[in-house]
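As a warm-up, study this chain.
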Amino acid sequence: MTSAVLAPGYGGTAEQPLLRKLAGRLEAEGIATSRITFSTKRPSRGYVTEKDELRTARDAVVAKAGGPVALIGRSFGGRMCAFLASEEPPDALVILGHPISPPARPRPADEAALFGITCPTLIVQGDRDELGPLAVLERIAGQNPRIDLVVLRGAAHEYGKHEAEAIDAAVRWLGSVLRA
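Now compare it with the structure written out below.
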């Protein structure tokens, strides 16, 4: 069986609606899921705690359901999944709304993590996402052939009415990559 760990956006929990809907769709496709809530209220130094929690969830879901395994994260959760994936590549990585470069706050470590990704990776990004400008992600995806970028026209960082489209893209892509 295939497995996936789903991580929420900043301040979110395992009960974040997008994660619940996505997990339901993945389970219906035969992919075992584990949704996590980070224990930290503020990011830990070097994201050590968040990466450890992802690692623990990954190992537990693989022990229970087997691999291959995907890491899936929404916003901040996607950042954390990318950092772990750059160190310990999963079979697939999905980032739903990467906050790669908030206004006046470039994140070179995030860019470096994506440049170094060696696993198949999908980033689903709104073309109106102010936290994750498309130009930055297009540049990175253009230089790393392991990254697929799906652009949601008219969507901001919070997908809003485009949420179902984001979930569909993730489920379809994961199905093609994990069962290839």
